[in-house]
Amino acid sequence: MTAKNWVFFSVGRVLAYLAVGIVENAVPSYTSELAPAALRGFLSGSLVLVVTLGNLWGTVVVRAYAKTTSRDGWLVPTAMQVTPPVTLLVLLPFTPGWYFLLSSKASAHISLRITEMVCREREVRKGHSGPESRSHKARSQLGDASR
């Protein structure tokens, strides 16, 4: 442990577990809003696998630095915890729902169109490009709802 007293250690643990709780609740909502219908269940269900791999990664890093008495003993494990969420915040797009909450309907429509284009491209690759495709039905429903 690198905390100088139990208060810092406890505060750090509470913040870390709070962040994990937020992620475990936000990821299913995020994936259900942006993922194509065929992948929603898989992506939401894979959250458990990703969290487990994160736990394994964290355990390996902390174990590797457990006996380090220099500044690296706390700096490297902390940096390893911060890297994935910062990367996701920078790389992942905002959802149309987020833009609507911010009262930015133009940005919401742009985000929605990008999501639709990705879904349409996947369907074309699979050979489902006709007007009866799921993407066409979703566009017509979303178009009616967003007006």
Task: Name some characteristics of this structure.
147 residues; mainly alpha; 2 domains; 6 helices; 80% helix
Describe this structure in words.
With 147 residues, this protein is mostly helical. The protein has two domains: 1-92, no CATH class; 93-147, no CATH class. It is 80% helix and 0% strand. The chain has six helices and no strands. The chain has helices at residues 6-34, 37-64, 72-91, 96-101, 105-126, 134-146. Helix 1 packs antiparallel against helix 2 (37-64) and helix 5 (105-126) runs antiparallel to helix 6 (134-146). The longest helix has 29 residues, at 6-34. It is elongated. The model has no long low-confidence stretch (mean pLDDT 76).
Task: Summarize it.
With 147 residues, the protein is mainly alpha-helical. The protein has six helices and no strands.
Mean pLDDT over the residues:
76
Share in β-strands: under 5%
Q: What is the distance, rounded to the nearest whole angstrom, between the alpha carbons of the first and last residues?
A: 56 Å
Class derived from helix and strand content: mainly alpha
What is the oligomeric state here?
single chain
- Helix tally equals 6
Cα radius of gyration in angstroms: 21 Å
